């Protein structure tokens, strides 16, 4: 209850001008309209190629600011404050939605989801009393602001003296996953609002924390907002690295541990005991054998298994009494609610075949695959092997999963994308948002 009352203290809606309550030293924001230049290339904008979109400078400036802020899961405070400043500068309404801290979250740096929506043309933004609650949008545009560790600084391949072009490479943690999506989504929304193709009251954005760990940001958002959103929401557009392809869904996951129990003995007389490490080794070899079938489907392919942690024994001269393997399976078997249970049954069957007495499976949790909508003209499609926040938002809306950059570098020390990929994503998000208004 103490936690709840502390959180309630933080659960407030800010309007522009009251931001200092949340920020010790708010980062400087450089914004400009499409016709003016901004921080990245103000001295050389005249040399931009003719094909450069009008939004390039602002897109790259926003992306740079986002990537420069370290925001490892649990430490998203400064990124949330940056976005709050950003929306305040635009005279958007916004809300900082508290999310429970992780174990290593600093007490003076609480975590927030950032919800925001553009002012309707009839309301004067910062003084509007209607800003206290989100609107009833047709489309939710969302992604996450937390990143995997370690933080890697922002870098750009084009020298400061030259204008970036479509082949310019931008590197740094979260440059792809998922601040590339955040920057592209907001750029797309600004462009659609500017032309009148999107009405301000039809869109809500939510940038959530904790996606890279257990999805607690989206779960919190869903708990607070899904019921109200359900009345009007037609679609949610989730930004994740898909190489600008539209995902038809992604595999589910099963977290579990294979536990082996043996009997300790002197290592010179191993027949007097039973080696848990030996039994576990046999089990792991069996589970990882390419010929072992853990469950498959036409849409999602094969269920795959990673043995991420192996532990066992106490000393080289003692027959091991205990051993343990922590595993994560990427589940290809539907349905969403119970597909993982079929993989559990298959693993348990295999463990019985290896050693029914010594081996057991401890299931930590899981789910089957998540379906997304991918019947939109103009997009290549694929199925993703990674987890997302998509299943954590309750509701019957259409669900699109899309964004710039590739998952193959997303959690690596080589995380990077090109300016051309970012700009293609802006155009892709525009199409998806407009499509969402019609579904
Ligand atoms: Zn991600």
UniProtKB/TrEMBL annotation:
Residues 1-22 form the signal peptide. Residues 118-133 have a biased composition (Low complexity). The keyword Hydrolase applies. Residues 249-356 form the Peptidase M20 dimerisation domain. Keywords: Hydrolase, Metal-binding, Signal. One of its GO terms (molecular function) is hydrolase activity. Gene3D superfamilies: 3.30.70.360, Zn peptidases. InterPro entries: Bact_exopeptidase_dim_dom (IPR036264), Peptidase_M20 (IPR002933), Peptidase_M20_dimer (IPR011650), Peptidase_M20A (IPR050072). Residues 102-140 are annotated as: Disordered. It comes from the Eukaryota. Belongs to the peptidase M20A family. This is Peptidase M20 dimerisation domain-containing protein.
């Amino acid at each position: 209850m103490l936690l709840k009352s502390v959180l309630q203290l933080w659960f407030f809606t800010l309007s522009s001008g009251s931001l200092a309550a949340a920020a010790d030293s708010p980062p400087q924001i450089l914004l400009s309209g499409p016709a003016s230049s901004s921080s990245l290339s103000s001295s050389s904008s005249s040399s931009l190629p003719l094909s450069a979109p009008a939004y390039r400078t602002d897109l790259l400036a926003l992306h740079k600011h986002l990537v420069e802020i370290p925001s490892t899961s649990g430490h998203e405070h400064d990124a949330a404050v940056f976005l709050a400043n950003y929306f305040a500068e635009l005279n958007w309404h916004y809300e900082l939605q508290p999310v429970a801290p992780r174990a290593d979250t600093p007490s003076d740096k609480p975590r927030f989801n950032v919800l925001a929506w553009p002012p309707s043309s009839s309301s004067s933004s910062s003084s509007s009393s209607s800003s206290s609650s989100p609107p009833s949008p047709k489309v939710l545009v969302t992604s996450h602001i937390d990143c995997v560790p370690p933080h890697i600084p922002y870098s750009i391949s084009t020298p400061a003296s030259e204008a970036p072009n479509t082949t310019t490479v931008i590197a740094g943690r979260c440059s792809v996953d998922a601040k590339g999506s955040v920057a592209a989504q907001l750029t797309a929304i600004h462009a659609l609002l500017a032309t009148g193709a999107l009405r301000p009251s039809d869109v809500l954005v939510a940038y959530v924390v904790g996606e890279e760990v257990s999805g607690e940001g989206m779960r919190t958002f869903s708990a607070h907002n899904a019921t109200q959103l359900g009345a009007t929401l037609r679609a949610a557009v989730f930004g994740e690295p898909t190489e600008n392809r539209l995902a038809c869904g992604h595999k589910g996951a099963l977290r579990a541990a294979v536990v082996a129990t043996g009997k300790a003995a002197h290592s010179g007389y191993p027949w007097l005991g039973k080696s848990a490490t030996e039994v576990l080794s046999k089990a792991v070899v069996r589970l990882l054998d390419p010929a072992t079938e853990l469950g498959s489907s036409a849409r999602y392919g094969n269920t795959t298994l990673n043995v991420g942690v192996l532990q066992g024994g106490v000393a080289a001269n003692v027959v091991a009494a205990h051993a343990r393997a922590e595993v994560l399976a990427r589940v290809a078997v539907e349905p969403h609610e119970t597909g993982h249970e079929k993989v559990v049954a298959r693993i348990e069957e295999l463990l019985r075949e290896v050693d029914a007495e010594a081996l057991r499976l401890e299931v930590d949790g899981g789910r089957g695959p998540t379906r997304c909508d991918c019947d939109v003209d103009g997009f290549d499609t694929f199925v993703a092997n990674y987890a997302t926040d998509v299943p954590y938002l309750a509701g019957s809306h259409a669900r699109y999963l899309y964004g710039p950059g590739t998952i193959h570098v997303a959690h690596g020390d080589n995380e990077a994308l090109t300016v051309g990929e970012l700009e293609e994503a802006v155009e892709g998000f525009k199409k998806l948002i407009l499509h969402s208004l019609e579904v």
